[in-house]
Amino acid sequence: MNPNIVVPPEQSNMRILVTGGAGFIGSHLVDKLMENEKNEVIVVDNYFTGSKDNLRKWIGHPRFELIRHDVTEPLLIEVDQIYHLACPASPIFYKYNPVKTIKTNVIGTLNMLGLAKRVGARILLTSTSEVYGDPLIHPQPETYWGNVNPIGVRSCYDEGKRVAETLMFDYHRQHGIEIRIARIFNTYGPRMNIDDGRVVSNFIAQALRGEPLTVQKPGTQTRSFCYVSDMVDGLIRLMEGENTGPINIGNPGEFTMLELAETVKELINPEVEIKTVENTPDDPRQRKPDIAKAKELLGWEPKVKLRDGLPLMEEDFRLRLGVSKKK
Ligand SMILES: NC(=O)c1ccc[n+]([C@@H]2O[C@H](COP(=O)([O-])OP(=O)(O)OC[C@H]3O[C@@H](n4cnc5c(N)ncnc54)[C@H](O)[C@@H]3O)[C@@H](O)[C@H]2O)c1
Ligand SMILES: O=C(O)[C@H]1O[C@H](OP(=O)(O)OP(=O)(O)OC[C@H]2O[C@@H](n3ccc(=O)[nH]c3=O)[C@H](O)[C@@H]2O)[C@H](O)[C@@H](O)[C@@H]1O
């Protein structure tokens, strides 16, 4: 090929690895990446919390490949970009085998950085707002170092992601790897596991089954919920842009868990009861992203409000649970 011909970036073919691509956010990201005919997408996943079903429309597609692989083992392939998502995200699942969660975050991220270094790929890590722990600053800007319990039951995830961020920056400084770090705040949408255990999927499944909505005590704790299409848009902008991050990607609309339960009840099943149940240790009391950096550096902000996103998720849950809407 003539070396003087410069191929503009939007014209070049890209081979993209998505680890954890059979999961909730990963499978939506794959859908978006596959829309670009210049992209070839490879998913690696161990199916711990993900499923082939989430990718069924792409299985057999000539630009798509699915590999059963655990990221705690080395991976030798040739790719241009790596979206590194592999890690259980629901507290129930990441606490199920905490040692494995740490291995996934630390050894898994080391392996993906090793791959990025060998082939010269750009790598994006999906970190989390949990790096801020139980935050003492509100809302949380990226400059906040957090308030994390290093020995608690959530630490395998929180500290695991903090080490993963450290590894990303050390590979960047020491080996010149091109890195991107997204700090994702609570994301919801179609394809979440019905029994995933996270609050939005729990409340929607409970409302559709006519079971009480289980608000964990005190119920005044807050979260800020981002719809999955907004999240995927933010991740792609971060990968394609020039900033390493970390950058918060989330929706600043903040709700108490009681408010969320009231909203789900009103929109999905006004007859359902709301009951208060025991909470788990170290549950953060408040969480809201400061997204000034995402707005300025990525030109990104979320578009889908909670009241518009919940019905889209309801539709998907109705189909999967076989519960039709009353006329
Ligand atoms: N959804 C959120 O609200 C949220 C918030 C903050 C950060 N994140 C991060 O985003 C990423 C995706 O989250 P999600 O909500 O889609 O979760 P998910 O559990 O649906 O997806 C995670 C995927 O990773 C796979 N996986 C887990 N361990 C693996 C391993 N050792 N090797 C290979 N694959 C493995 C799972 O099988 C699953 O398909 C995670 O890194 C998570 O920490 C998510
Ligand atoms: O977004 C993030 O940064 C992190 O948020 C979540 O962790 P968490 O906010 O604890 O998620 P949930 O399990 O959905 O809990 C949210 C709140 O709802 C409450 N909850 C949960 C479940 C339930 O049935 N009822 C209920 O009131 C919890 O006590 C908590 O206060 C994700 O699961 C993590 O993967 C992610 O990294």
UniProtKB/TrEMBL annotation:
CDD domains listed in its UniProt record: UGD_SDR_e
- Domain (NAD(P)-binding) spans 17-311
Which keywords annotate this record?
Cytoplasm, Decarboxylase, Lyase, NAD
Q: What is its main location?
A: cytoplasm
Annotated pathway, please? Nucleotide-sugar biosynthesis; UDP-alpha-D-xylose biosynthesis; UDP-alpha-D-xylose from UDP-alpha-D-glucuronate: step 1/1
User: Per the record, what are the reactions this protein catalyses?
Assistant: UDP-alpha-D-glucuronate + H(+) = UDP-alpha-D-xylose + CO2
One GO CC term of this entry?
cytoplasm
Q: Name one GO biological process term.
A: D-xylose metabolic process
Q: What is its EC number?
A: 4.1.1.35
Question: What InterPro entries does the annotation carry?
Answer: NAD(P)-bd_dom, NAD(P)-bd_dom_sf, UXS-like
Q: Which GO terms describe its molecular function?
A: NAD+ binding; UDP-glucuronate decarboxylase activity
Q: What Gene3D superfamilies does the record tag this protein with?
A: NAD(P)-binding Rossmann-like Domain
Q: What class of enzyme is it?
A: lyase
Write down the required cofactor(s): NAD(+)
Compartment(s) where it occurs, according to its Swiss-Prot or TrEMBL record: Cytoplasm
Cited Pfam families: GDP_Man_Dehyd
Say what the protein does.
Catalyzes the NAD-dependent decarboxylation of UDP-glucuronic acid to UDP-xylose. Necessary for the biosynthesis of the core tetrasaccharide in glycosaminoglycan biosynthesis.
Q: Which family does this protein fall into? A: Belongs to the NAD(P)-dependent epimerase/dehydratase family. UDP-glucuronic acid decarboxylase subfamily.
**Could you tell me what this protein is called?**
UDP-glucuronate decarboxylase
What organism does this protein naturally occur in? Theobroma cacao (Cacao)
